[in-house]
Amino acid sequence: MGKALSPLLMVLGTLIFFAGQWIAFEIYVNTKLSRIGENLSQFVHGLYSGDTLIKLNKEDESIFILRTAGGKVITTNNAMGPLRAEDFIGTGYSKGGDHVYTYIKRVSFSEYLNVFLEKPFALGVSISGLILFLSGLALLFKRDKPIEQKESSEILPQEDILRRLKALRVTFAMSGIIPKESLSEAKKILDDIIKRMEGKT
């Protein structure tokens, strides 16, 4: 269970993070479509009322221009600026000498990011997913670390013992206190232990 928890948190965190992104994207797109729809409704109502200059509530979102076969021009109040043409995508339709031009504001990444500030719920979902992912990542590293520490703790004492045995052998070689028979036997045993610990047969 411990081994499966870390990947599970990471996968779950990733899914929740992208769920937050999708929520923000839907809010952004639906809000934009709603604003465009409101402007279109106002333009159609202005045409029906006989207006030649139609005021839009969301004038930064879309521009509508109608040029009739007789040369009459009906437009929205934002057609002459101060909006920049490069910020809009334009399309047109012609029939029987009448021409209709529609300009819709381009999708903006900065406006999309503003959704996270205006709608904290989407930001909260994304942050929750990120926290879960990082928690899973932290558990993964925490699980691997004790294994490395355990391996190092097993190796270091063995190296320490080997060093001490070699030092003891040198001491025996330089000592004249121990009888020669006992000294030779002790050195032989030490040499055998050292060879085995070094992996020599």
Beta strands, count: 5
- Helix content percent band: 55-70%
State the major sheet: 5 strands, mixed
Along the chain, the helix and strand elements come as HEEEEEHHH
- What is the general shape? rod-shaped
The secondary-structure class comes to alpha+beta
Low-confidence stretches: 175-179
Q: Tell me, rounded to a whole number, the average pLDDT.
A: 79
Characterization of this structure:
The protein has helices at about 1-50, 110-120, 120-175, 180-195; strands at about 55, 60-65, 75, 90-95, 100-105. It is of the alpha+beta class and about 200 residues long. It has a domain at about 1-125. Strands 1-3-2-5-4 form a five-stranded mixed β-sheet. Strand 2 (about 60-65) and strand 3 (about 75) form a beta hairpin. The chain is rod-shaped, with a radius of gyration of 40 Å.
Keywords:
201 residues, alpha+beta, five-stranded mixed β-sheet, 4 helices
Provide the fold topology.
Layout (H helix, E strand, L loop, with lengths): L1 H48 L3 E2 L7 E6 L5 E4 L11 E8 L2 E8 L3 H10 L1 H55 L5 H18 L4
Parallel strand pairs: 1-3
Antiparallel strand pairs: 2-3, 2-5, 4-5
Helix pairs in contact: 1-2, 1-3, 2-3, 3-4
